[in-house]
Amino acid sequence: MLTLNHELEQSHHHHKHANTSHHVGGHHLMQVENLNISFTMYESDARSYFNAKQVQSNVIHDLCIGVHSGEIVAIVGASGSGKTLLADSLMGHFEPNATVTGSIWFDGDKMDAASLKKLRGHGISLVPQSVNFLDPLIKVGKQVQGFTKSNSIKKCADKVSPKNISNNASSISNSDDANNSDDVSNTGNTNKARRFFKEHRAQRAKLQAKLFERYNLNSNVASLYPFELSGGMARRVLLCCALMDNPKVIIADEPTPGLDLELAKVALADFRQFANDGGGVLLITHDIELALSVADRVAVFYDGTVVEETAVANFANPDLLSHPFSKALWHALPEHDFFAPTGGDALS
Amino acid sequence: MTLDTVAANVSDLETSRLKADLNADLKEAVLEARDLSFGYLNSKKIISDLNLIVRTNERVALLAPSGRGKSTLCKLLAGYLLPNKGSVLLDDKPLPQSGVCLVQMVWQHPEQALDPRMRMRQTLSESGVVSPELIESLGIRQKWLSRYPHELSGGELQRFCLARVLAASPRFIIADEISTMLDALTQAQIWQVLIRECEKRRIGMVFVSHSAMLTKRIATRTFKV
Ligand SMILES: Nc1ncnc2c1ncn2[C@@H]1O[C@H](COP(=O)(O)OP(=O)(O)OP(=O)(O)O)[C@@H](O)[C@H]1O
Ligand SMILES: Nc1ncnc2c1ncn2[C@@H]1O[C@H](COP(=O)(O)OP(=O)(O)OP(=O)(O)O)[C@@H](O)[C@H]1O
Ligand SMILES: [Mg+2]
Ligand SMILES: [Mg+2]
Fold first, then answer.
1. Which residues are CB-neighbours of A30 under 8 A, at least 6 positions away?
2. Which CATH architecture has domain A1-42+53-121+248-348?
3. Helices marked H in chain B
4. Could you tell me which of B197, B193, B195, B191 has the C-alpha nearest to residue B211?
5. How far apart (Å, rounded) are the C-alpha atoms in residues B159 and B169?
């Protein structure tokens, strides 16, 4: 476990503290240390498929970032710099050709791929960047409620013991775990489970309806399939999925593109509320202005690592930003210069 | 980033405008939505009796709240959907049903617009020869060409979509939230290229963006759906 005396050290783990953040139990809610991810690929200019050499491409290197209870940490950065890879890693999702080193702590415990997977929907919820995360064959209301594999109450109640119910009922991301539930042979138990499950299900349906209303989704949207949604509607449905569960950390990978300002503000207000209630949020976004309006700290990502962690206020003036990429980002904003050097790498 | 480079950049745009004037012999074209009505199967009408005329020297921003029908209108204009009533006309003629369309669309989610089983090199070649200058100015790197879409980030993929569309030599480009998934720097970069190419080659544009500041930068005119 990672412990440090936070009173004595104002700056630790490569970051400074925001006023609102605190360490429950003396540790970070989530801490990533020295994360490295590289991919094994085949040489791109080989003449034939068979004599192509394997090459390693390093995408994330020496990445450190922490989230405290009570705070929103915004990650802004270059597209292609590895933000989604970081989010995927925190969900325990790794591509087969990836080599990963480093450590991830969650709530004081050191994690591995399997334990991170178990946290999906229970400790950590993801708002994914890609709308492809929605199952194309399931109506969105059902998906948000999380009853994807188990349509009949009877079937579930027979199969699921009370301890596993929450497992089965959680969001889309962990439906694969739901299969592993133990059988319950005892009939008394089964009845109890059935009742418990019914209540639980009604509760989730109610919560789903409430969230839809909050996000201005008409009640008939619940019976639409994903392909029938507009871009902004799909985005809102993904948000509802993450807010259904009761996680400690929300990782939001571009939660607002396609939302108009009003709706985006609702989403950010919900994240703020979630953090104020003791949760932690990792907000990955390209919308710098929006991020600045709610975040406690900002980390700037470039080329696979955090190049600068800075106070929100420093984004008021490019001279207060230290890394050339942060400065370039500032100048590129439409409200500033809308300027980018042409061609090649944006910084060369 | 010094003020000088910013100034140099502005004069870049000036030169491209001058070049556009040299291309004055490229004739104007008109894209028109005439009395357009549309509703998806067994749901209510989303667009009714809509009229819109766009010329090749314009960049028109479509404005409406989420779910109103901006993307639907884009798909109608690019011929991906057929109207229930009314028509979409290019120079007074209906859009061709086959062959390369002179109205090309760029989508918000590039991962949905690309064939997941095709390497990027092959995807690019779909619309003929793409000039190396264009690839260069869009910041596409050689090493991306041999990858599959899932091995590239959203911003990387969107550059390919733009290259593909520009290589098809369209008269109009319909751009549906094409830079919402990109960082500010990439956003400025691809819009710079897109605006320059459109002015140089007299391509008209209809676009959607949720950012008021971006719209202000790009649009020559707005249209409420
Ligand atoms: N399976 C893979 N094999 C090889 N390279 C990959 C793979 N997956 C991702 N990459 C590369 O890793 C880099 C980071 O991708 P990632 O999707 O994390 O970027 P991002 O910061 O989320 O970008 P965006 O803002 O555009 O979403 C990209 O350059 C991408 O090409
Ligand atoms: N394939 C489809 N089948 C049925 N209904 C659809 C389909 N696609 C979109 N719709 C519906 O049509 C309406 C308009 O959708 P559209 O995607 O055009 O909205 P939009 O203005 O682009 O919204 P956004 O800003 O969220 O992208 C929505 O109510 C949506 O549910
Ligand atoms: Mg990403
Ligand atoms: Mg849309």
1. A66, A67, A90, A104, A105, A106, A107, A124, A249, A280, A282
2. 3-Layer(aba) Sandwich (3.40)
3. 3-22, 70-77, 110-113, 120-125, 132-137, 154-167, 184-200, 212-218
4. B191
5. 16
Q: Are the C-beta atoms of A203 and A146 separated by less than 8 Å? A: no
Strand partners, B32: B53, B89
CATH of residue B152:
3.40.50.300
Prediction ipTM score: 0.81
Q: Are B215 and A260 in contact (CB under 8 A)?
A: no
Å between B33 CA and nearest CA of chain A: 21
Query: Residue of the nearest CA to atom 5 in ligand 1?
Result: B151
Q: Please tell me the distance in Å from B210's CA to the nearest CA on chain A.
A: 5
A63-73 residue pLDDT tens: 999 999 999 99
By Cβ distance, the residue of A130, A264, A332 closest to B185 is: A332
Task: Please list every residue in chain A whose beta carbon sits closer than 8 Å to the beta carbon of residue B212.
Answer: 261
- Phi, psi torsion values for A162, nearest 5 degrees: -50, -35
Nearest by Cα to B66 from A232, A86, A104, A310: A232
Q: If we measure between CA atoms, which residue out of B58, B7, B64 comes closest to residue B50?
A: B64
Could you tell me the residue range of the domain that residue B179 belongs to? Answer: 3-224
> Distance (Å, rounded) from C-alpha A240 to C-alpha A244?
6
pTM: 0.82
Q: Does ligand 1 lie within 6 Å of residue A129's CB atom?
A: yes
Q: Does the beta-carbon distance from A338 to B188 stay under 8 Å?
A: yes
Q: Concatenated DSSP letters for A190-234? A: HHHHHHHHHHHHHHHHHHHHHHHHHTT--GGGGGS-GGGS-HHHH
Q: Indicate the burial class of A137 (C-beta count within 10 angstroms; 0-12, 13-18, 19 or more).
A: exposed
List chain A domain ranges: 1-42+53-121+248-348, 137-246
Residues A278-333 have pLDDT tens digits of 999 999 999 998 899 999 999 999 999 999 999 899 999 999 999 999 999 999 99
Which among A132, A232, A286 has the least Cβ separation from residue B111? Answer: A132
pLDDT interval class at B112 (50, 70, 90): confident
Contact indicator for B144, B44 with CB cutoff of 8 Å: no
Chain A residues in contact with B65 (beta carbon < 8 A): 260
Closest approach of B98 to chain A, Cα-based (Å): 25
Contact B189 A346 (CB under 8 A): yes
DSSP one-letter string for A104-123: EEETTEE--HHHHHHHBTTT
Angle formed at CA B156 by CA B220 and CA B67, multiple of 5 degrees: 50
In this structure, what token pair is assigned to residue B17? Answer: 């405008």
| Integer Cα distance of A329 and B184 in angstroms | 6
User: For the segment A128-150, what is each residue's pLDDT rounded down to a tens digit?
Assistant: 988 888 999 999 999 999 864 44
Q: pLDDT grade, residue B108 (50/70/90)?
A: confident
Q: Does the CB atom of residue A257 touch ligand 2 within 6 A?
A: no
Count structural domains, chain B. 1
The residue nearest atom 14 of ligand 1, judged by CA position, is: A82
How many Å apart are CA B217 and CA B54, to the nearest integer? 18
Contact list in B for residue A257 (CB cut-off 8 A) is 108, 177, 180-181, 210
